[in-house]
Design goal:
By secondary structure, the protein is mostly beta strands. The chain has one domain (about 1-55): SH3 type barrels (Roll). About 5% of the residues lie in helices and about 50% in strands. β2 and β3 (about 35-40) form a beta hairpin.
Amino acid sequence: MKEILARFLGKELVLHYGTSSTVKGKLTDIADGVAQLEGEEATVYLAIDKINLFWEEKPREKPLGFITK
């Protein structure tokens, strides 16, 4: 898992762990079996062996033009 996660350093990821828990953030470091994610509100440290699956969070495209109410 460490080698696969290392390919995604610097990218926005969603990590799934446990039964229904997820954490989202930019993967900034992997060391000593722990992944470090920088989120909007906090830095999260998650044990790599607890990760069930992960996916890359793609940036959403913003609509062009004016938005009316």
